[in-house]
Amino acid sequence: MSDSWQRKKCSMCSSWVFYLASWSASPKNCTRCRLKEIRNLPSLFDRYLTKEKKLQYRVTAFDEKIAFASRATLRSKIARLLNNYSDTEYELFIAKCALDKDLYNLAFRLAKEQRLNSRPKRAGKSVAAKRVAKFLQGGAPGLGKRA
């Protein structure tokens, strides 16, 4: 397998998309176009910050505290981004997210979680037995217990 980078045009905006030749599926769109497809990206980031704030008080184990502290820079980036860009500057918001690898990885992860949570739940199956088994009755001898 070759480790050389390939490139092709984005199907939406005609910018270059780079991918490795060893990848089984090459990307169709660039990062910016993929970010544009995510609905309501600022609200996803806002919801992430809210969850992180609630999680701040629940972290008790040492390993969890280290993991929570390692995400402090990501939380500050998101808070700064949400404060700097308003709803009218959505294109600038997308452009800023596309430049930062941590932000666009988080955006894709949050979008995937949202898709999985909004998917309808599967209905449970009622499985019937192929044949009815002979049951032994329990209890007093006068109730028809088979010997």
Kindly describe this structure.
This protein has a domain at 30-118. The chain has a two-stranded antiparallel sheet. It has helices spanning 31-37, 41-56, 62-70, 72-84, 90-99, 101-118, and strands spanning 5-9, 16-20. The protein starts with a strand and ends in a 29-residue tail after the last helix. The chain contains 6 helices and 2 strands. α1 packs across α5 and α2 packs across α4 (72-84). By secondary structure, it is mainly α. The mean pLDDT is 86. The longest helix has 18 residues, at 101-118.
Can you lay out the helices and strands and say which pair or pack?
Layout: E1 5-9, E2 16-20, H1 31-37, H2 41-56, H3 62-70, H4 72-84, H5 90-99, H6 101-118
Antiparallel strand pairs: 1-2
Comma- or semicolon-separated keywords:
147 residues; mainly alpha; two-stranded antiparallel ribbon; 50% helix
Form type: extended
| Radius of gyration, CA atoms, in whole angstroms | 27 Å
Distance between the termini: 71 Å
**Portion of residues within helices:** 40-55%
Q: SSE string, helix = H, strand = E?
A: EEHHHHHH
Mean pLDDT: 86
The main β sheet shows up as:
2 strands, antiparallel
Number of strands: 2
Strand order of the largest sheet: 1-2
